[in-house]
Amino acid sequence: MTVSVETRNLSITFGHGPTALKVLPDISFLVEPGECFGLVGESGSGKSTVLRCISMLTDFWKGEILINGKSVRDMPLIERCRTLQMVFQDPYGSLHPRQSVRTVLSEPLRIHKLTNHEERMQKVLSDVGLPGSFLDRFPHQLSGGQRQRVAIARALILEPSLLLLDEPTSALDVSVQAEILNLLQRLREEHGFTYIMVTHDLAVVDHMCDRFAVMLRGEITEILPREAIPGCEAVHPYSRELIGASLEYEGHV
Amino acid sequence: MSVTTASKLRVPASVNALRNIVLFLMKSPTSLFGLAVLALLILVAIFAPLIATHDPYAQDLANTLQAPGNGHLFGTDELGRDIFSRLVWGSRITLTIIFLVSIVVGPIGLAVGAASGYLGGRFDTVMMRITDIFLSFPSLILSLAFVAALGPSLNNAIIAIALTSWPPIARLARAEAMTFRNADYIAAARLQGASPTRIIVKSIVPMCLPSVLIRLTLNMATVILTAAGLGFLGLGAQPPLPEWGAMIATGRRYMLDSWWLVTFPGVAILCVSLAFNLLGDGLRDALDPKQMNRR
Predict the structure, then answer these.
(1) What is the spatial distance between Cα B233 and Cα B249, in angstroms, rounded to a whole number?
(2) Which residue range or ranges hold the ABC transporter domain (chain A) (predicted)?
(3) Is some CB atom of chain B closer than 8 A to the CB atom of A81?
(4) Spatial CA neighbour of B147 closest among B168, B165, B135, B161
(5) Model confidence at B129, in pLDDT bands (50, 70, 90)?
(6) What's the domain range around B170?
(7) Considering CB atoms only, which of A95, A135, A158 is closest to B192?
């Protein structure tokens, strides 16, 4: 099942009183079912915060987030977990250092009282291109790319329809980045996931996303299709600058 | 089929880890000493009836205050009881105290610390004020007050020691838990629908466990000393129990002409608490997460 995601007037403020900081003033966007939607922008522009709001890791936001027209706030926990999952930026920090791959993968199955643990774990490992023998490995026995595959497997094991990707490749070296991106691309084709992907790399957007939003200081300056990148067809000066800089950088490389 | 092979593979993993820790401890002479003394203590306690040369309670008023030698390895005390046998039987009391205090203090400290570190907020504030209250008493004085209120006995001494030694462990576990509560793997567990209890038990506690274990081992030295101190003051084990601190207390009166009455229990206390300190130090190196990759 593919889902659409819509955020309406999403805003969030950290802190109280005079020190309060409005990180997201007013965010609205719509992600079509099965689409890969990119969020780009400089550090601190609130990209990751948007993902944390959608996933309810941060739950004191205002506004509305609808998945297939249903508010995430009203979704029961179990249903929410099986609808959306997240892949984190740093594979070195996102796996519990003292849990084996087996524990990492079987824990959600146990929470959700699913059956056929062994079968599901083997399937999800082969989905992310790891051999089944990796079940008994610990994170420190895995490379960065393998860790990120395990993290993706952990996100997939509950068979969600929406994957939130928080810079899934930025902590990896370039060759592994391509592997992980291709893996994500393949998974989307096979399972019809909807992706919301945070990145600051426009090359990744160009490779993966159908549309992307450029964020600046918590606001979306512009939503562009992927095709706008090569010709730098953005209207807003900041987006033009960002895309221009990226194109220039790639031209040099 | 795959299930059976998997379980076969998993059991040795924890055994392996334990073996690796022991091997690591044996590499450094100081922690090897600690390990050896601890092993000796346990063996002596288990085989006390076989090792002891005399009945620890048998009085022989014709042979009081005998110097070491003449069939009494460490001499006899003021009632003619064999000091060596009393020390051997006393190891059981020492081990009981350590064991009971540790199994009470460890889980309580870990549970309170991990829960308040992870949950934060009001729960944390309340729990930490309670530990503050316990921490602000000198532990021996608080134990004294407890024993004075409950009456002197070995069990009350154990309860008193346990009551005063959980707060530092809770503090430690809380500090550890607070460094992990915002980690991505905790966020991932929350996204999988894990309840706070589940996260604390499955994710936070394993991370706090090594430092708590180290602290607990180092604590055992203090526990022995406090127990001996309470025994010395007559508030712990009651006569005729061969508790080491109580033995020193009664031997004190004859100290000037019969040195063996206080020396041997004193050396036993010194050795065992030193051993636990050295072992704790060794464990700190062995359980250091940075060394995980070497295993």
Answers:
(1) 7
(2) 5-242
(3) yes
(4) B161
(5) very high
(6) 27-289
(7) A158
pTM: 0.83
Nearest Cα of chain B lies from the Cα of A137 at a distance, in angstroms, of 10
Per-residue pLDDT reduced to its tens digit, B206-217: 899 888 988 999
> Domain for residue B1, yes or no?
no
Per-residue pLDDT reduced to its tens digit, A56-108: 998 889 999 999 888 999 899 999 999 999 999 888 889 998 888 999 999 99
Number of domains present in the structure of chain B: 1
Q: Indicate which CATH number applies to the domain containing B77.
A: 1.10.3720.10
Q: Is residue B256 situated within a structural domain? A: yes
Nearest CB partner across the interface for B191, out of A57, A100, A112: A57
CA of A174: how far to CAs of A145, A169, A170, A204, B159, in Å?
A: 10, 9, 9, 11, 59
CATH superfamily of A5-251: P-loop containing nucleotide triphosphate hydrolases (3.40.50.300)
Residue B16 within any structural domain of the chain: no
Which residues of chain A have a pLDDT value below 50? none
Q: How much of chain A is helix, strand and coil, in % rounded to 5?
A: 45, 25, 30
**Burial per residue of A73-86, b for 16 or more beta-carbon CB atoms within 10 angstroms, e otherwise:** eebeeeebbbbbbb
